[in-house]
Amino acid sequence: MHAPTGTRGTAIDNGLLAILAIAAGLTVANNYYNQAMLGLLAHQFSLSAGTVSALPVVTQLGNVVGILFLAPLGDRLERRSLILATMAALVVVLVVAALAPGFSWLVVAGIGIGLFATVTQQIVPMAVHLAAPHERGRVLGIVTGGILVGILLARTVSGFISDIWGWQAVFATAAALMLATGAALAWRLPRVEPVTDLSYGRLLGSLWTLLRMHRVLRQAIVVQALIFAAFIGFWSTLALAFDAAPYHFGATAVGLMALVGVAGALAAPLAGRFADQRGPDVIVSIGAGLVVAAFAIFGLFQGSLAAMIVGVLILDLAVQSSQVANQARIHALDPTARSRLNTIFMATMILGGACGSGLAGLAFSAWGWSGTCLFGAVSAAAALLMSRRC
To answer: Same domain for 148 and 263?
Structure first.
C-alpha cells in the first residue's frame, strides 16, 4: 500500500518512470486514432469528406476543453485518484465509440475521448512531482518522448487495425489498452495529496495570475507555440506534398515517415539530461535553431527523399527537445501550481499547432511545398529570436 507523498527528494524509480512514459504515449494516442479511419467511415456511413472530418475536429476541441477545465484539478485533488477516475471515464467513452451504431454517436464519443484523453496532462505533472530536482529534465524527456511516439504512431497503428478488422476494432483495442494501463497505474502510483485548497473557480482564475506573474512562462509558451506551429504545419501538408510530383506517394508513405520521426523522438531524452546539466535555456535555443535548419533542408532539397528523411529526424528531435526544456523551465517556477502551469503551456501549444496547420495549408495552396517550408522556417526563426531575449 502506498503512503501519501509530498514533494519528493529521491530519484524516481525506473520501473514507475517507464509506466508513466508508456501511459502518456498510449493515452495521448486516443486523440489521433480517428484520423486514419476517415475514409472507412465516409464509405460506411455514406458521408462527404467535409462531414466525416468533423470527428477529428470535435475530438481536438474536447481535448482543449479538458486541458483547460480538467487538467488544473491536479493541483486541487489527490493526483492518483484523479488520474484513475479520468482513465475509467476514458475506457467508457472508448467502449461507446466501439459500439457506436451511427456517426452521430461516434461524434459524441469523440468529444468524450478528447476530453478524458487529457489524462496525459495529469501524468506529466505527476512525473515532475515524483522526480528529484536534479533529474527533472531527464524525466520530462522520457515522458514527453513517450507522448510524441504516441502521437506519431497512432495513425499508423489505427490505419493497420482498421484496414484488417474495421474501425470498431481500433476503439475496442484502445479501450483494452486503457484498462490495462489504468491497472498498471493503480498498482504503481503513489498517493499525492493536493498542493492547494483553492476553490475550482479561483483555481481557474489563477491561470491568468500565473501568466501575469512569470515572464519565463510567457516566453516559454510563445516560443513553443511558434515551434509547434511549424511542426504541425509540416505534418498537416506532408500528405499533399507526397501526393504531388515528384513523389506521387500514397497515404502509407506519411505513416512510414512518422516512423522515421519516432527515431528523433527517442533521442530527445538525451536533451533532457543535457538540460539537467547545463540548464534548459540553451536547449530551447538549439531546438529552435534546428527546426529552422530542418525546414531549410526541406526547402533546398525538394524532391529528395533522403533529404526529407534527414529533415524529419532533425525536426522531431528539435521539437521534442525544446518542449522538454521549456517544460523543465516552467515546472520549476512554482511547485504548488504544476498542473496549472502545464495547462497554460499545453493549451497555448495546441493553439499554436492549430494556427500552424491553417497557415501552412494556406501557404501550400499559394506556393506549394516551398510555401510550407517558408512558413515553417519563419515561425521557427521567430521562436529562436524570442528564446534569445533576456
So the answer is: no
Cell matching residue 330: 516552467
Helix then strand then coil, % of the chain, to nearest 5: 85, 0, 15
Is 210 contained in some domain? yes
| CA separation for the pair 1, 127 (Å, rounded) | 19
Indicate the residue among 127, 162, 195 that finishes a domain: 195
Read off the C-alpha cell for 374.
Answer: 517558408
Whether 289 and 217 map to the same domain: the answer is yes
Helix 120-130 × helix 305-331 angle, to 10°:
60
What is the CATH classification number for the domain harbouring 249? 1.20.1250.20
Dist. CA 290–CA 209, nearest whole Å: 33
Q: Which of 10-19, 112-121, 370-379 has the lowest mean pLDDT?
A: 10-19
41-75 per-position pLDDT tens digit: 888 898 886 687 788 878 888 888 999 999 999 99
Rounded CA gap, 258 and 255, in Å? Answer: 5
Quick one: 277 and 328 in the same domain?
Answer: yes
Q: Let me know whether 120 and 268 are in one domain.
A: no
Packed helices 280-300 and 269-278: angle between N→C axes, nearest 10 degrees: 140
Residue type, 146: G
DSSP state of 72: G
Q: Where are the beta strands (DSSP E) in 104-235?
A: none
223 and 358 share one domain = yes
Q: Which residues of 325-360 are buried (b: 16+ CB within 10 A; e: fewer)?
A: bbbbbbbbebeebbbbbbbbbbbbbbebbbbbbebb
Contact indicator for 342, 121 with CB cutoff of 8 Å: yes
Q: List C-alpha distances in Å: 280 to 147, 182, 286.
A: 19, 32, 10
| pLDDT tens by residue, 306-326 | 999 999 989 988 988 898 889
